[in-house]
Design a protein that fits this description.
about 120 residues, about 40% strand
Length: about 120
């Protein structure tokens, strides 16, 4: 698991008015032929069931502050942060007073590649 805090990344202010944050570059260890893009919105006080993926990487980009359990530890995630989950890393959303929006990139997208530790 890798958490990239937006405030600690290279910020570039371009002459045309755009601001670019170079969040990270991540070696996945395989050639990616397919990826899936997902947008998720958790309602306030939502708890997501802990789960993991045996083969897929998941890359989360948070557009709201959030709280997540990752490999048995609670993490406060800030708006703009990026979290990269490698296969077999257990994760799930924890309750917050706000709604939580996030974009997810799944590579590769594999149907049925979602497992629950207690099952």
């Amino acid at each position: 698991m890798r958490i990239v805090n937006c405030d600690n990344t290279n910020k570039i202010n371009r002459e045309d008015g755009r601001t670019i944050w170079d969040l990270c570059e991540q070696e996945l260890g395989f050639n990616v032929h397919d990826i899936k893009f997902i947008f998720v919105e958790h309602p306030p006080e939502f708890t997501e069931k802990l789960h993991y993926h045996k083969e897929s990487f998941e890359i989360f980009y948070f557009i709201d502050d959030a709280r997540y359990e990752i490999n048995g530890e609670a993490h406060d995630i800030k708006k703009g942060d990026l979290v990269i989950f490698e296969p077999n890393e257990v994760h799930g959303g924890l309750p917050t007073s706000n709604k939580v929006g996030l974009f997810i990139i799944q590579a590769p997208p594999i149907k049925g590649d979602k497992y629950f530790p207690e099952e």
